[in-house]
Task: inverse folding
């Protein structure tokens, strides 16, 4: 039997190491614990008193993580990549490496080192609490919300020095830097339809919030123009994506004439599969990616894509994080996407 209780020392009492441990004992969410220990009025008095009593009983001091970071500086910024939506995706993915390169440059310029962590959330539900509570980092950048929006929201209630690369939603509590993904999806669909496409496919998974927003934007334009659009579910790793795309093309050959891929790397895998089948791009099928990674201009034919300014995003992540480390509760930064027209659409 798996023991889901907070940590127990052999033959000893229960140990509470994280906010999540305390939440399990109190029977509330980690976010409620964060708010209660921060003294926020959103938590009713009875619940707050109960949480504070449990914290005292187990030697978990209110605001202990925040006070630790006020007292101690490590000179290290933690960068964590949660892969709850596709555990087979690698940190070596071209998008991750591009963003990490810009982040490393920005942090080095500001006098900080970078500590990188890749996590599979279903194997470690406390992945974010453990990282920020480790005492090893002064602040955290989360690259991608994956399917972990609620987890990130909970932590944001009690931990200020955190900024997330991802999609901004109205009313969210965590600070985000990212592209207007809905608008990017609209730009892609508008370009495909203007180029003469009459039946579209969105190629990619939608568990990740950013990709779901891109599909939402594309579908809004397609619906408005009376153009059908379907989803072709596709893994994010290039090897897996190639097999997924091959199966979609075999089953639905001739049914679509325009593809919007959730990322450039998926688009490039799709372009390879189309060429292997003798499908003319852009003659028979037009194709648009998303990211404008350096490799997208080097494909044959060169990839039309939606550009997100990754360098500006890295600067924004570091700027906002350093301000938050200084106590400033910053707003999110949403960057405008740009259609880059090349040869595939």
Result:
């Amino acid at each position: 039997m798996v023991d889901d209780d907070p940590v127990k020392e052999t033959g000893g009492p229960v140990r509470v190491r994280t906010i999540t441990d305390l939440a399990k004992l109190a029977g509330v969410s980690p976010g409620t614990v964060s708010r209660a220990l921060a003294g926020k009025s959103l938590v009713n008095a009875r619940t707050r008193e109960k949480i504070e009593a449990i914290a005292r009983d187990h030697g978990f001091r209110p605001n202990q993580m925040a006070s630790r970071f006020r007292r101690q500086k490590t000179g290290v910024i933690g960068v964590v990549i949660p892969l709850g939506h596709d555990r087979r995706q690698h940190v070596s993915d071209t998008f991750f490496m591009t963003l990490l390169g810009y982040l490393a440059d920005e942090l080095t310029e500001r006098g900080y080192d970078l500590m990188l962590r890749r996590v599979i959330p279903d194997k470690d539900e406390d992945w974010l609490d453990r990282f920020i509570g480790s005492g090893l980092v002064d602040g955290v950048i989360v690259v991608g919300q994956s399917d972990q929006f609620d987890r990130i929201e909970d932590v944001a209630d009690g931990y200020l020095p955190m900024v997330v690369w991802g999609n901004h939603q109205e009313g969210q509590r965590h600070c985000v830097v990212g592209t207007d993904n809905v608008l990017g999806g609209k730009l892609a669909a508008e370009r495909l339809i203007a180029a003469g496409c009459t039946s579209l496919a969105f190629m990619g998974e939608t568990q990740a919030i950013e990709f779901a927003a891109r599909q939402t934007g594309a579908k809004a334009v397609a619906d408005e123009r009376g153009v059908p659009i379907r989803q072709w579910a596709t893994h994010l790793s290039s090897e897996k994506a190639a097999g997924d795309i091959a199966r979609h093309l075999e089953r639905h050959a001739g049914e679509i004439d325009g593809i919007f891929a959730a990322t450039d790397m998926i688009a490039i895998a799709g372009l390879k599969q189309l060429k292997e089948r003798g499908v003319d791009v852009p003659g028979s099928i037009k194709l648009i990616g998303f990211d404008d990674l350096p490799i997208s201009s080097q494909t044959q034919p060169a990839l039309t894509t939606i550009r997100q300014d990754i360098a500006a995003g890295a600067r924004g992540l570091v700027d906002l994080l350093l301000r938050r480390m200084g106590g400033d509760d910053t707003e999110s930064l949403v960057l405008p996407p740009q259609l880059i027209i090349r040869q595939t659409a």
Remarks:
- The chain has a mean pLDDT of 86.
- The first strand starts at residue 76 and ends at 82.
- The chain has three domains: 1-62, 75-179+310-335, 181-307.
